[in-house]
Amino acid sequence: MVEASISPSVELLLELQQVLENPLLGIAGAFSDLLQGRIPHGALVIFTEDCTGRPQKKVGQAEVIDHVTIAELDVLRDAVALRGGSVWNESAMLARSDRTMSAWIASTGALLVLTDPDLTGVTPTGVRETRDLVAALWDLVASGIRTQVVAAAPDYLRDSRMASRDRATLIAELTDAHSTTLELLLAVLRSRQTGDAAARQTAIDLAVAAMVQLRAVSDRDRLLSEEPVARAFERLRNDLRPLARFGDLDVQFIEPPVNGRALPGEVAHAGRAIVRGAVLALVDQPGVARVRVQWDCDGHNLLINIRDDGPGDLSAETPSVRQLVARVAALDGDFHVDATPGWGSDISVSLPLDPPSSAIAPASGWGLTTREQGVLDLVATGARNRAIADALSISENTVKFHVANVLRKLGAVNRAELASLVRQTETPSALA
């Protein structure tokens, strides 16, 4: 009996399905593997603002993935947008040097970059077909990334928050260091004791431009990692509009303060997902006709309240609510359900805007560097080398180097012992 062969189109769909089934940290590698047989490339880089903790996802040549920056990708995305959403085999500044690359922008706004794409021997018609195919595949993958972020598992939220904290700290340190250097340079060049006025003015202009560019990088990173509370609430309103329009449900919105503190990206995403899940859990009860949604921000926490007019028998043990409780716990928040039979259920959520300070002993206690401490934080969560490399934007070999140093400094034999040491520092009796 001859088995029926699978057509190329069906095979491609199956491969795409496997890519989309990967966790967020594995999508870049899986998508690169899918494309390699159709368009060989040196590195694959994804830049998406949906993933606020790690907007870059990358795999391939170390000289690319170890040095590519958000600032470069931001400039590249604007250039690709001006060219109609895709470019092919063009030169661009990437990872600190000019490289040949092809790039596509998905309908979600996410950018895909392939470095050194190679279609040697392919006809012009074949090249066009390949470009169109990659564009279509990328649009589906980018939509899949957005869907996963909306429904991110608690572990990803914890990891994302940690990545956001580390990136923000690094940006602040770089900004302070370079600003101090440039301010000193300006002070010297403005001194009347410096000769050659024309040269001095040129140097001043260059230094001022450098300071402006540095501040722009810092501001851009802040835009990636934060979302104004009013805009975040408006996106939530749009997400819930289909329920109100087609579900005969009266959804009432209580507006947050317009000038409230901006929300960290992972808090805004998680907050919207929690509200959507809570509303669906409420309307799944019989007799619910009205739901009120309220957001507020006290400067330290995002405060969420969802109330219905249903039977009032909802609890934290209700299956549709359990995952919401886990999401809130992942962000160190509080989740409460108050239900009054015959009057309805009231869900209150508080999400801290700032991550808690690390429970691990200070780096000075173990002699760890800042980078080693960051690696240890992630090792303690059970993250593997690939996930740590992606989270910290370093190579896997660099991760292995830091892990070896941490093991040596802490006198641990393996990663399990490292996690155990971390847990001991979190236990009050261990500090007595």
TrEMBL record:
UniProt KW keywords: DNA-binding, Transcription, Transcription regulation
A single GO molecular function term of this UniProt record: DNA binding
SMART domains: HTH_LUXR (SM00421)
GO biological process, one term: regulation of DNA-templated transcription
InterPro entries: HATPase_C_sf (IPR036890), Sig_transdc_resp-reg_C-effctor (IPR016032), Tscrpt_reg_LuxR_C (IPR000792), WH-like_DNA-bd_sf (IPR036388)
Domain of life: Bacteria
Ligase is among the record's keywords: no
Keyword Transcription: yes
Limits of the HTH luxR-type domain: 361-426
PANTHER family cross-referenced by the UniProt entry: DNA-BINDING TRANSCRIPTIONAL ACTIVATOR DEVR_DOSR
Full protein name: LuxR C-terminal-related transcriptional regulator
